From TrEMBL:
Membrane-topology descriptor: Multi-pass membrane protein
Top-rank taxon: Eukaryota
Primary location group: membrane
Family annotation (PROSITE patterns): MFS
Record-annotated Major facilitator superfamily (MFS) profile domain positions: 310-514
SUPFAM superfamilies the UniProt entry points to: MFS general substrate transporter
GO cellular component: membrane
Transmembrane stretches, start-end: 98-119, 131-151, 163-185, 205-227, 239-259, 271-292, 312-332, 352-373, 380-398, 476-498
GO molecular function, a single term: transmembrane transporter activity
UniProt protein name: Related to monocarboxylate transporter
Segments of this protein annotated with the region Disordered: 1-20
């Protein structure tokens, strides 16, 4: 038997191994990729695909930009630049329908927020409280949005834009209508009544704080469910579209400021807030049905609300710093204007019309700066110009204005530039960090607005009271205006440095579109 086997083996042909077969086998190493937006599966092991383990296929093992970790993206500057993304359909019927619904929300929500200055002027004139106290109260209409930005962003990701938008509409309308229970007429006001005011008012502080916070919380819910929902539908017209949505807050502020004053003269301040609050809810609630983001954005957008590694990016830090400082003077003009007009010798109706003009200029500025951002100027440069115009309008015009014409000019310039500070934030974030990270970066940017939203109005009120109050004339407003204008100027300088960082990261000339 052994002899037979040997004879059989000797008859078989001998095959010489080729050089590839003689190559030493490399140890198989398991590699993993981090979970990203485009690759939600946390682990991807090359053991499941043997073809990737050979040295000849080493190029296939290299992770793509979409599968790299956030730290690598930040260090390399790749994958988070908004200039390289594609939008399949520019707008379309669905996109413009979302624009219309978001515009309705901004019209009523921000219109009611801006009209709080008229209520403040009525309460101060009626002797209910002083400017400093009401400055703190007025900040409650805007402070919940930046403070609760992270949980509100998570709520939108979990429950959807429709549900969060509907909840915001209810809070805004109920909160504004509930303000009517926060004061009552009295014959013994705490402060002397102003000229033309014959009825004293007294405050119920607890309901005033509660309903103002309710309105501010509703404003935050509305903002995060509608402010960047249109970003995924447009690219070429992104600045224009966002400008249209944000401009509705200016138109709303102009219309509702006049309505509050007109209704207060006819049916009283309490009934004017009830009528406007309820009617706002009736108009906003049906619009929540069409608050649906683009399907590509729903599939790819980042669902995080906070990412610590972004603080390693100098561009993010500069934009965060500029946003925080730019918020300080943002809501001061509409709150100070009614009392400033009275201190300058104008009638209360003139103050209401100035607030309306400021809001109207804000609406026009949001659209105009949005259109400029879509041109070769770019969104970052547009933001820098808006901050410069805002600081100049306060420091060089408002502080030295002695007539209605110069005051109106300051309000037009400041309103147009201040409105752009809000409307340019989503396009700037999308251009620097990408559309699919707009919700994440907007959530973190809104956190930085907490300090300005909380301290801007009260600081102005305290400086006003410290220099004599509204009865001391327009000179008493100068310290507050100088402070706010200077803060805005520092914010503009920060954006100048941000623009330089973006140009360096893209390796383009400083004259390029940024």
């Amino acid at each position: 038997m052994p002899a037979q086997v040997n004879s059989m083996s000797s008859s078989m042909p001998v095959v010489k191994p080729n050089s590839a077969q003689l190559r030493p086998r490399m140890p198989v190493e398991a590699t993993f990729t981090s979970m990203t937006i485009d690759n939600p599966k946390a682990t991807s092991n090359v053991l499941l695909n043997p073809t990737l383990s050979s040295p000849g296929n080493a190029a296939e093992v290299t992770p793509s930009a979409g599968s790299r970790t956030t730290m690598e993206l930040v260090e390399a500057g790749a994958g988070i630049d908004g200039d390289n993304e594609e939008i399949a359909v520019e707008g379309g019927w669905a996109g413009w329908r979302v624009v219309a619904c978001a515009s309705v929300y901004f019209f009523f929500t921000l219109g009611l927020v801006y009209s709080f200055g008229i209520i403040q002027e009525e309460l101060v004139s009626g002797g209910a409280s002083d400017a400093a106290t009401l400055g703190w109260i007025s900040s409650l209409t805007v402070i919940p949005m930046p403070i609760l930005s992270v949980p509100m962003t998570k709520a939108v990701a979990r429950f959807g834009n429709r549900a969060v938008g509907a909840a915001g509409a209810i809070c805004v309308s109920a909160g504004y209508a509930g303000l009517s229970t926060s004061w009552y007429p009295t014959n013994h006001p705490k402060l002397p009544l102003s000229d033309g005011v014959h009825q004293g008012l007294a405050l119920r502080m607890a309901p005033l704080v509660v309903f103002t916070l309710m309105q501010g919380t509703g404003y935050g819910l509305v903002f995060f469910s509608t402010s960047q929902i249109t970003v995924g539908y447009f690219k070429k017209k992104r600045g224009l579209v966002i400008g249209i949505v944000y401009s509705m807050s200016g138109f709303g502020g102009a219309a509702i400021a006049i309505l509050v004053r007109t209704l207060a003269n006819k049916v009283g301040l309490a009934w004017s807030t009830r009528i406007l609050g309820i009617s706002s809810g009736i108009n906003m609630l049906p619009m929540a049905y069409w608050l649906v983001p683009h399907q590509d954005e729903r599939r790819k957008r980042c669902v995080e609300a906070f990412r610590l590694s972004l603080f390693l990016d100098a561009r993010f830090n500069l934009l965060l710093f500029a946003t925080a400082l730019g918020t300080f003077p943002l809501f001061v003009p509409p709150f100070l204007l009614p009392t400033y007009a009275k201190s300058a010798g104008f009638s209360p109706n003139t103050g209401a019309w100035l607030v309306a003009g400021y809001s109207l200029a804000s609406a026009i500025g949001r659209v105009a700066f949005g259109m400029v951002a879509d041109t070769r100027v770019g969104p970052v440069t547009s933001l820098m110009l808006a901050l410069l115009v805002s600081s100049i309008s306060i420091l060089a015009i408002w502080t030295v204005s002695t007539s209605l014409a110069t005051l109106a000019l300051a309000m037009v310039l400041n309103g147009a530039s201040s409105g752009a500070l809000l409307s340019l934030q989503p396009p700037v974030n999308a251009a620097i960090f990408g559309v699919h990270q707009t919700a994440l970066t907007m959530s973190m940017m809104m956190c930085s607005r907490a300090f300005g939203s909380l301290l801007g109005g009260p600081l102005s009120g305290y400086l006003l009271d410290a220099t004599g109050g509204p009865n001391a004339g327009t000179q008493a407003y100068r310290p507050a205006l100088l402070l706010m204008g200077s803060i805005c100027l520092v914010s503009a300088v920060s954006v100048v440095f941000l623009r330089g960082k973006v140009a360096k990261r893209r390796n383009v000339d400083w004259r390029a579109r940024i």
